[in-house]
Amino acid sequence: MGHQITSQSSLTMAKAGIFSLLYPLLLSALVLNCHCQERKLHVVYMGGRPQEDVSVAANHHSMLHRVLGSATAAKDSLVHSYGRSFNGFAAKLTQEEATRISEMEGVISVNPNRIFKHHTTRSWDFMNLTTDKVGGPQESDVVIGLLDTGVWPEHPSFNDSGFGPPPAKWKGTCMTTNFTCNNKIIGARYYNSDNSYYFGDIPSPRDTEGHGTHTASTASGVEVEASYFGLAKGIARGGVPKSRIAVYKVCWAFGCSSADILKAFDDAIADGVDIISVSLGSDWPDDYFDDPIAIGSFHAMRNGILTSNSAGNSGPFPVTVSNYAPWSLTVAASTIDRKFVARMQLGNGQMFTGITINTFDLNGTSYPLIWEEMPQTIPLAPVQILPNIV
């Protein structure tokens, strides 16, 4: 009897041991299967817009219907339909569904949605594009489309005094959600495919970060008086101050979605812009068919529109230029011909010149010097540091 009980106990323990070994494997397989079945946003690129008089959006719905099995599922999946300037769409798909879409006729590439980052008075004079070379009457017909964080429309750089109505060629629109266009800012759209907003984000073309307002004023801002707390006083202006601005807000607190970038290109080309400015990009260079900026700028080029890209914020190491398509203009970084300098005289009479931003007058007062590495070894209270130069 005792032998039977021992045998049953051993069998139970063996089963428990086998289960404990298999459980992590079963759990991993279940998690992996759930992950593969999760629908994520994908960008489907199909090349140029069809010449035939067909509904591009209807074709996108049909493709999704065949893969997802119902018209309702296709409608719920579709986020963007690109059909005004080129052909493609953005939809929420599982990995398996994305693979099936990629095997369909006419599909060039299918890529998961990616998040890009935006890149960041006297620049135009430094480049020899001085005031006497800009401001011609033909400039008012130039429309610059800016893909960025939006703009702050009340900024003085976008004052429309002296501007007439928008050019007759303009086909764009102004989304007036917490935003007002004028004869300088003639168009405004915003895109958020994830429909998620973080603290500070406004569902509007309005800029709450500052990057888009900066790039827009650099490209197209009218002349305004500017300084940095009294330093570098002068006139700030854009490269083409008489031009018009069309705002395409694609960047938010979390970054810039590739699905939204392509939709903005699709709209900007069809709206009738002349130049597209894109001061954003990925952390590394991509293949042309996987890069929404390369794809969008290619179709802009085919429509006679120049795309001006930033090279990126990385470097100076190799393979750090993220925008390098040969059909667009990539703007590199450079030095400039001025510095903010200050002179410091030691007690022994030695004079040193360095770069600094100092907005207050020392009035000839002498201050003790503290070695910059000293606080790392000898903790100092703020009251001990304040009257010194670190």
Automatic annotation (TrEMBL):
Residues 140-335 form the Peptidase S8/S53 domain. This is Cucumisin. InterPro entries: Peptidase_S8/S53_dom, Peptidase_S8/S53_dom_sf, Peptidase_S8_Asp-AS, Peptidase_S8_subtilisin-rel, Peptidases_S8_3, S8pro/Inhibitor_I9, S8pro/Inhibitor_I9_sf, SBT. Residues 1-36 form the signal peptide. GO terms for molecular function: serine-type endopeptidase activity. Belongs to the peptidase S8 family. Pfam families: Inhibitor_I9, Peptidase_S8. SUPFAM superfamilies: Subtilisin-like (SSF52743). The lineage of its organism: Eukaryota, Viridiplantae, Streptophyta, Embryophyta, Tracheophyta. It comes from the Eukaryota. It comes from Sesamum radiatum (Black benniseed).
